[in-house]
Amino acid sequence: MNESSNMATRNSRDKILGTVHGNQPAPRELPPLPEGTPIAPADLAPTFITALEAIGAAAYIVSGFDRIATMLHEQFPGARRIVTGCPQLNAFAEAAAAAKGLDPHMLENVELAILPAHFGVAENGACWITESLMVERALPFIAQHLVLVIPHSSIVPNMHAAYDRIAVLEAEAPANTYGFSTFIAGPSKTADIEQSLVLGAHGPLSLTVFLLDENLSDAGYF
Amino acid sequence: MSGSNHKDHAALAAEFNKDEPRVDWHDETLWWVRQKRDKAAARVPEWELLRDTASHIKENVLSNLSGYLRQFEEEATRNGITVHWAADAKEHNEIVLSILSRHKIDKMVKSKSMLTEECHLNEFLHEKGIDVVDTDLGERVVQLAGEPPSHIVLPCIHLKKQEIGEIFHEHLGTPKGNADPQFLTHAARLHLREKFLTRRVALTGVNFAVAETGEFVVCTNEGNADMGAHLADVHIASMGIEKLIPQRRHLGVFLRLLTRSATGQPITTYSSHFRRPRQGQEMHIVLVDNGRSVHLGKKDFRNSLKCIRCAACFNTCPVYRRSGGHSYHTAVAGPIGSILSPNLDMKKYADLPFASTLCGSCSNVCPVKIDIHEQLYKWRQVIVQEGYATAGKTAAMKTMNWVLSHPGVYHTAGKTGRWFMLNVPFTVKNGFNTWYRQRDMPTPPKQSFGDWYKKNKK
Amino acid sequence: MRVGLFIPCYIDQFYPQVGVATLELLEKLGCEVVYPPEQTCCGQPMANSGFEHLTKGCNDLFIKNFEEFDYIVAPSGSCVLHIKEHIHDPAGQKPPEAASSDRTDISALPEFANFPTANSRHNIPGKIFELVEFLTDVLKVDKLEASFPYKVGLHQSCHGQRGLKLAQMSELMAPPFSKPQHLLNLVKGLELVELDRKDECCGFGGTFCVFEEAISVKMGKDRVADHIRHDAEVITASDMSCLMHLEGILRRQQSKVQIKHIAEILNARL
Hints:
The structure holds three protein chains of three kinds.
Chain A: H1 3-23, H2 41-54, E1 58-62, H3 65-75, E2 82-84, H4 96-99, E3 112-116, E4 119-121, E5 126-130, H5 131-134, H6 139-142, E6 145-151, H7 159-172, E7 180-184, E8 189-190, E9 198-199, E10 206-212
Parallel strand pairs in A: 1-10, 2-3, 3-6, 6-10
Antiparallel strand pairs in A: 4-5, 5-7, 8-9
Chain B: H1 9-16, H2 20-42, H3 47-63, H4 65-78, E1 81-86, H5 89-102, E2 107-110, H6 114-118, H7 121-127, E3 131-134, H8 137-145, H9 161-172, H10 181-198, E4 201-204, E5 208-210, E6 215-220, H11 224-231, E7 234-240, E8 244-245, H12 251-263, E9 270-274, E10 282-288, H13 292-295, H14 312-316, H15 318-323, H16 334-344, H17 361-365, H18 372-385, H19 391-405, H20 407-423, H21 449-456
Helix pairs in contact in B: 2-12, 3-12, 9-10, 16-18, 19-20
Chain C: E1 2-5, H1 9-14, H2 16-28, E2 32-34, H3 44-51, H4 56-66, E3 71-74, H5 77-86, H6 124-127, E4 128-130, H7 131-138, E5 151-154, H8 158-163, H9 179-184, E6 191-192, H10 208-211, H11 213-229, E7 234-237, H12 240-252, E8 258-261, H13 262-266
Parallel strand pairs in C: 1-2, 1-3, 3-4, 5-6, 5-7, 7-8
């Protein structure tokens, strides 16, 4: 920014902060945060799946990536360009390494993106995915269809627990200190036209979430 | 939207009511959204506790807003975001323009931001030769129609699908007569995808900014904010200074309340957290005052700054549902708009606090417990004090006061009035009596209760 | 106990039968009821129109007429709420502050300087009750010698419901309760109808009913339609202002549906 606009914004800054400071009401303590209604561990995944299905997404519990690859092969037979951030699927799709660092506009023709996410939230079916898992920020949005893979055991009950978990993740690994991150809860959608719900607005037309449960036998998928 | 020549809410609402079936449709559509909110809230056992918590957090924010603003600026700057300060709408618009000019860009995409509506950004940029495409579907519809949005969450809720089909036929070339929401949405998807891919500047709003971490959150169902930002070389975020929250974990409270209150969903499809610009990208945030710092000093009205723009108050308001957002002739309509707008321009918006029966429903649905209906009452007192009541109303009130302060006068007036109603009905049953237009007058009794008591009890 | 009977101005002038029913009902239930003849109005129509600063005359008159009683009872939720919230000095008892730059602080206006203060000996806010809540909370009525064999729609007047908490509000996630319904359930033969929108405002709103006539009437028509859809023969409420507005619409539609204030129903005999 040039000199004079820097000055202008500096003057406004001081004026705004001064007026705000002078007009603030008496101090008010922060309240304690609720923990939310607890959910029994066995109910976490079913609650998550119910919430997801209510928002037009599909959810499956699977034992491993082989299962995922098979199912995706069945569900997206004609997909011409698939990009994945899951190294286990590099045989199935274009690996992250190839797509990473590209101009995001180059991802325009991606039909299917398969990405890992950190955890799911039972109360609303959301998955938390940080930039480090996205390959490119644009990818989870620009792909026509999105698949997310989370550990079955990763589901937390509600958003309070989610932010606790996010803090833990950041403490565990610097890569999780995201420059960008998002909760994704379902396919993109709109109800702007007379409140008629339409799935598929500007983001992906569909969302499928796989819950990886390595304790499952091969035949046990939802 | 010119100065004092505009029609007031009562006149605009009367026009809106000429088409009664349409009013019924508008009313029922928004009542349904209110009911969805009720169902979603009922599934959260701690709902009222959440409202209380959110209200307290926001009160804490207001009590230390300058501290949190400084903290946010420091953290955001450290994250690589350029922080700008705009004292008013004009400065905000000029800052946005200066960023565009520096990059020699004349086309951009914009996702939903009520703040930019408040600042009339689109009109300003249009005059300067900048092409702005609104990418939220509802906003794109009203943009093509040449109208302002009528609802802060559902911008084109006042339009029927046939009308939207017509607009798309005219501007996007969809087949005439096609009013299928699925088809129209898909047409908009293709049309706007081209804009996302070809435009290098994206402007978004801000739902919440976190002082602790210098990040901000943008919530959409459509994914349009993200499609714009992640493909753009420059991401500009416009934010009212009151949109801060102290700590990231507070987002847990607000994200649980926001979308349930707005549309009855547990959460929006995307709740995107922006903390650093993408590699090679410029990220800017414009902190806008535009009257908020002054409003903060008004002890009776400052709590309206807690607002998180969910529009639950719109959906529950029996007056809003039957007037439509355009009757409020302001960027943010409905009950919250009626207590925010007089701060911006008391003369222009003097009618809004009176566009209410003070039923109190709004205050009960507000996720941050703003005392909306009480502020409506208090604004009425201020507006009259500032001299914005009509001469007719003032005279009528003074007369009423005189009569009601003097029992003898009151008794005579009552008796006289009833006599005239009974014996010369034309005195009230005429075209000048507004009550009488669509309602019968009560039948005047021969004696008042006072008369009866005197006869029978004394 | 001595009860001062406060009869709102429009009931006094247009619906005296509601005042009579209220008085008879209270006496039946064992109260000594006195009607101070010099009473006029609570001041609400002016206050709600932005002219609260003109209501000192009404406030003084009210205190003069009613301060001596153990209880003050009125068949009107909105009037009682107004008195409770506004009879005292809006500035309360706080010490005078240094002149503030807040021009919107109306409590600092000279007109309010001599308003009766909250700590005056009268304590009117503590002893004024709307009729329904007086019956349920003070007299703790659990039976009534009343009979009203009709289908009745209960209109939930806003100020009584949300202001005085006469019934649970549909917006809140909280256990349901309804004081008017409790009393109506004690009336023989009465059948309460279910409505689509339990607590939507009727649209009267004081001077709103003429200054925003189109919306006011539309809201009233929609309320009336809800009751008619559910076969109500009589519409009742604890506020005659709502009922006056709904009646105006019903009579214009030449409907057979009647309106009766809840006092009249609770006092009704075959």
